[in-house]
Amino acid sequence: xxxAQNISKSFGNNTVLRDVSFKxxxxxxxxxxxxxxxxxxxxxxxxxxxLMPDEGTVRVRGVEINxxxxxxxxxxxxxxxxxxxxxxxxxxxxxxENIAFPLRRAGETDEAEIQQRVSEMLRLVEMPxxxxxxxxxxxxxxxxxxxxxxxxVHRPAIILYDEPTTGxxxxxxxxxxxxxxxVRDQFNITSIIITHDMRSARRIGQRIIYLRDGQxxxxxxxxxxxxxxxxxxxxxxxxxxxxxxxxx
Amino acid sequence: xxRGGDNPKGGRVSTQTAGGGVTSFVASMGSIVLLGGEVLxxxxxxRLHWNxxxxxxxxxxxxxxxIVLTTGASTGMVFCAQTFFQFHKMKMxxxxxxxxxxxxxxxxxxxxxxxxxxxxxxxxxSAELGTMRVTEQIDALRTMATHPVDYLVVPRFxxxxxxxxxxxxxAWGVGIAAAYLLSITVLGLEGSYGxxxxxxxxxxxxxxxxxxxxxxxxGIIALVGCYRGLNCGEGAEGVxxxxxxxxxxxxxAILVSNFFLTLLLRGILYx
Lengths: 248, 271
Fold this sequence. Notes:
The complex is a heterodimer of chains A (248) and B (271). With 248 residues, chain A is α/β, with parallel strands linked by helices. Chain A has one domain: Rossmann fold. Chain A has helices at 40-47, 70-77, 95-105, 111-124, 140-152, 170-187, 198-204, 222-226, 231-237; strands at 2-11, 14-24, 29-34, 55-60, 63-64, 80-83, 158-162, 190-194, 207-212, 215-221. A 6-stranded mixed β-sheet of chain A has the order 6-7-8-3-9-10, with helices on both faces. A 4-stranded antiparallel β-sheet of chain A has the order 2-1-4-5, with helices on one face. In chain A, helix 3 runs parallel beside helix 5 (140-152). Chain A is globular and about 55 Å long. Chain B starts with 20 loop residues before the first helix and ends with a helix. Helix content of chain B is 80%, strand content 0%. The longest helix of chain B is centred in the middle third of the chain and has 39 residues, at 96-134.
């Protein structure tokens, strides 16, 4: 469904991704893990065409999206939903307007249908009745839920999560994980999640890709990753600092 | 608009680091012209977002009235008083209102309204879009199959281009009215004589010249503001710098282009 082949990307003199390759099958859920600054978010943005690789190719359902003009990419992106790290909700709109945005952009004009879909999504993320609330009235966890509702309201085939539980308390993080699983199972959505939260990665990722220094260090099932005897992998998944490497 | 691709947040690396002030100014003006081309293309090929357009028209047009009225009245009165003091020495008192009128309509009205709107609207556009960029709202738009130029730039461009001539007419009206009131109440001039001369010496071409300039300045303010916002640097500092650059660059562009527009439009409108 999505195929990244030999992707390399630099920003100035800083090489962020080096020769990254992997495939994601339809309906699969992948967790991408790795230390901060190792290129996880950059990789995710390549998959939806927000960034273009210096070398390599990205294919979405067989269509190569590299160097595709922005206006042609818009059609490709209709297959995606994305939950941003900070939710990236539009602060000039209330909750309902935010969630309805992708529907209106897709040409839906039946207001009753739009409102019904918005309410349905809010029930799914366990926030019924907040349609008219302003974003300033929502907590971080609530924003993430609204962001998730907005990402799935148009029933995308693929959903990208950029650190969905970062900055949330363990209980809220757990509820977000459960929502992600519910969305995946209910709509059979292909999911790619970037996370630092190893518990989330284990629960959500059928496969885990460990990025290290901009390269794929390990691409294996969750069980293999968490039972790995490789020192670097086990240190990372168990959250053990290696002071010799300067990891604090 | 450039596709994001030069920094991890999807924006463009600032040209300020690439060269000196003049080079970066010229380079960014080139990018702004390209953005203008994209806006024109979008205007004729995609559906206008009416809600966003009306909201922007209200913000740019309606809410800029106070600052434009104040600037117009103040300029009209000060210019009238200074002109009178100089003309009085040459016994040309009655030409005062005519000079004020012609100057307000062809130069002072559009330029001062442009500078005021650049300060108020250009800064607001740049800060809003810049904040949207650093909080990934622009990327979110793109992931929802929405081109930022269609949704954000076109309504702001259209609203500013429509509002600027109307605000300029407002500046003319209040500037000339203030000058007229000052001349008859304080300076002791004969009002009807001044108005008759004003009507006689102001041509349709002068009005057209002022309106075309205002239209052009509106386009500059919107495009510079949007460009700076969409390409701003990271964090609060990046948004602050983008806002500052938007106002400075719009004001410089208005003042420089005013000179060339005067020469060009004089050649076209006054054959």
